[in-house]
Amino acid sequence: MEVFLKIRRKNTTIFLDCNEETPVRELKKMIEGITKVPVNDQRLFKDEQLMDDYKTMAECNLTSNTAKAQSPATIGLAFRNEKTGTFEPLEIIPYSTPPELPDELKTVESGQNAE
């Protein structure tokens, strides 16, 4: 069964899908293809817990029931700093919220424009 994922790092979001039997290491290879960051320089987190490279998505509780297309599971991503050789802390910047609608665009319960 397919698993739908939202990979988050700072301001970046990557949407990926894979199989429940896909190992975490294979997911990292998919991310490497997009970011050009080697597998060994990536860390993936689910619920702020480091994911084991050799566990499958299902073993990490990422299944077609928990990671649907309309509500993908969020996975955190951290990279190794090339200069220091240490991994950056997991940082996910929240999405911005849209501004409030101007009064002219708000509608009353009857569905007509407010006056």
UniProtKB/TrEMBL annotation:
Cellular component GO terms held in the UniProt record: elongin complex; VCB complex
GO biological process, one term: transcription elongation by RNA polymerase II
Disordered: annotated segments: 92-115
SUPFAM superfamilies according to UniProt: Ubiquitin-like
Domain (Ubiquitin-like) ranges: 1-66
Pfam family, one: ubiquitin
One function term, GO molecular function aspect: translation elongation factor activity
PROSITE patterns: UBIQUITIN_2
Top-level division of the source organism's lineage: Eukaryota
Task performed by this protein: SIII, also known as elongin, is a general transcription elongation factor that increases the RNA polymerase II transcription elongation past template-encoded arresting sites. Subunit A is transcriptionally active and its transcription activity is strongly enhanced by binding to the dimeric complex of the SIII regulatory subunits B and C (elongin BC complex).
Family designation: Belongs to the Elongin B family.
Record protein name field: Elongin-B
